[in-house]
Amino acid sequence: MDRLKKMFDTHPAPASGAGDTALAGVTAAVECSLVCTTCADACLSEGADMAECVRLNLDCAEICGAVARMLARPGHQDRETLDRLLAACIRACRACAEECERHAESMEHCRICAESCRRCAEACEEMEGALVA
Amino acid sequence: MDRLKKMFDTHPAPASGAGDTALAGVTAAVECSLVCTTCADACLSEGADMAECVRLNLDCAEICGAVARMLARPGHQDRETLDRLLAACIRACRACAEECERHAESMEHCRICAESCRRCAEACEEMEGALVA
Amino acid sequence: MDRLKKMFDTHPAPASGAGDTALAGVTAAVECSLVCTTCADACLSEGADMAECVRLNLDCAEICGAVARMLARPGHQDRETLDRLLAACIRACRACAEECERHAESMEHCRICAESCRRCAEACEEMEGALVA
Amino acid sequence: MDRLKKMFDTHPAPASGAGDTALAGVTAAVECSLVCTTCADACLSEGADMAECVRLNLDCAEICGAVARMLARPGHQDRETLDRLLAACIRACRACAEECERHAESMEHCRICAESCRRCAEACEEMEGALVA
Fold first, then answer.
1. Which residues of D75-107 are buried (b: 16+ CB within 10 A; e: fewer)?
2. For residues D11 and D15, what is the distance between their CA atoms, to the nearest angstrom?
3. How far apart are CA C16 and CA A20, in angstroms?
4. Got the DSSP string for A25-62?
5. Would you call D41 an interface residue with chain B, using a CB distance cutoff of 8 Å?
């Protein structure tokens, strides 16, 4: 994501001073979005019934992707919309992490996915803090 | 969206009884998502500086799209995640509608887009109500 | 999708005269995208192993969504990019339809989904024809 | 993207041996998708008329995003669909790179974006090669 950092640095009119926090947020969100996409796919190859895990993975992938794309537009922030979207993302990440943690001992992909969800929830909380400041 | 209605009717295990409200929600959200996409594109062809409107259109398109896809998975609902995502969508729709209404007299596409955003916000509120019930 | 039609009619500078065909394309693609999303979710609730069907549904939902959003920007068309994306969509729709048809007798959601995929492939072919003209 | 690499390594049933190439493809595609999203936003803050550049950025962001998500599901590959989607992505990346290069001297964000698009086109070509092999 080196080029994305440079993009943020050269943006002609960023709306806030939250650039570094936003960059950390995009990075965590986009990783989590893809990790959840892969986890859903991996779960489909397990013999066990992983329907609930697949669904939470898909929700989380969806919302993390939306967060990443919204944070990747630093020229404007409707703070209230972003706040609410971050709140949705934090919840989706935690719900997915909890479900994945139930399978973490037997399925390494779920263990890593839970880790990625926890990291993304943290990054969203840091972003919330930066918006308040 | 006749086929989507049939899909909802034949789903083997919907998570809630909110089927018709959810279907109305998907329909309003997906229309709003595409209308906002077209409005952003139309705004780019106007001579005036429409940057703010384009940005709110893109945010709204993004979040409405996420709502539509999440509601299109009736087999499961993490109610809290959905609630928060609907709250983000309602706010994004209203912010976009307000901006579009400022241009509605001179730009017909903004007038229609504002209408679509107001309708989507309503449908999301009805969905919120159905979740509480 | 009445409002989307009005958006197309009031766009200040559409790039081509393919407006009605493009509108039919968006409509078919967005329906197929959501129908495939619901079919994947429904398949997860079936007892049988539907992993292959879920995967083809997710691919098809993804590409149909991209087609819908690209066609919803009538102000510009890089014809070659659009042509190639339509080709990918036609293939994804057919692959998904074939798999869904295998389950159509026992699962009504797969029967409807196959129908939606066939319709979307047709609409993409009509759009390809309109681009050549 | 360290966690995504681990996800690929622990997937129970990858469809092909193209894991490392696919991982490089996801990484390049997702970076390009976000860089194009930021470039569109930055272009909206420039005084000049950048409508064409914004549109090509949005197309490229869209298609690169679809490629990233499809490659992030290693459990299955409909080779023909993937091939066609990669072809669309290569074209979208090149069209966007060409437009951005026209502004590269005066706008650093366009210079970096063009670089990201060229890298993504290369990664897609490498992926095409890995599919043939």
1. bbbbeebbbbbbbbbbbbbbbbbebbbebbeeb
2. 10
3. 42
4. HHHHHHHHHHHHHHHHHHHHTSSS--HHHHHHHHHHHH
5. yes
Look at the alpha carbons of A110, D7, D12, A67 in this order and tell me if their dihedral is positive or negative: positive
Domain that holds residue A103: 16-130
Q: Give 10-residue mean pLDDT values along chain D (133 residues).
A: 93 85 96 98 90 96 98 89 97 98 97 98 95 74
Question: Between residues 64 and 83 of chain C, which touch chain D (CB distance below 8 Å)?
Answer: 65-66, 69-70, 73, 75-76, 78, 80-81
Rounded distance between C-alpha atoms, residue A123 and residue A131, angstroms: 12
User: Is B6 a domain residue?
Assistant: no
Distance CA A38, CA D5 (A): 10
Domain total of chain B? 1
- One-letter amino acid of B105: E
Judged by CB atoms closer than 8 Å, whether chains meet at C55 and A45 is answered as no
The C-alpha of D73 sits at a distance from chain A's nearest C-alpha, in angstroms, of: 5
Question: C100 with D118: CB under 8 angstroms?
Answer: no
> For the domain that residue C94 is a member of, what is the CATH number?
1.20.1270.360
Pick left, alpha or beta for residue B13 (phi over 0 → left; psi -120 to 50 → alpha; otherwise beta): beta
Cβ burial, residue C108 (10 Å; 0-12/13-18/19+):
middle
- Chain C residues lying within 8 Å of A45, measured CB to CB: 51
On whether residue A5 sits in a domain, the answer given is no
Confidence of residue C133 (pLDDT cuts 50, 70, 90): low
Look up the pTM and report it: 0.97
What is the separation of C-alpha D63 from the centre of its chain, rounded to a whole number of angstroms?
Answer: 7
Is residue C4 one of the residues assigned to a domain?
no
Residue B47: band (very low, low, confident or very high) from pLDDT cuts 50, 70, 90: confident
* pLDDT tens-digit series, residues B71-86: 999 987 789 999 999 9
Provide the pLDDT for residue B132. Answer: 74
Closest chain A C-alpha to C56 CA, distance in angstroms: 11
Here the contacts of B67-71 (C-beta below 8 Å, separation 24 or greater) are B67/B25, B67/B26, B67/B29, B67/B124, B68/B25, B68/B26, B68/B29, B68/B30, B68/B33, B68/C34, B69/A62, B69/C34, B69/C37, B69/C61, B70/A59, B70/A62, B70/A63, B71/B22, B71/B25, B71/B26, B71/B29, B71/B127
Nearest chain D residue to B55 by CA: give it.
D41
**Residue A11 belongs to a domain:** no
Q: Decide: A96 and A88 in contact? Cβ < 8 Å.
A: no
Report d(CA B57, CA B50) in Å as an integer: 10
Distance of alpha carbon A91 from the chain centroid: 11
Question: With an 8 Å Cβ cutoff, is A87 touching chain B?
Answer: yes
Instruction: ipTM value, please give it.
Output: 0.95
Both tokens assigned to B54: 């384009």
- Crossing angle for the helix pair C19-44 and C51-71, to the nearest 10 degrees: 160
- 3-class SS string, C73-98: CCCCCCHHHHHHHHHHHHHHHHHHHH
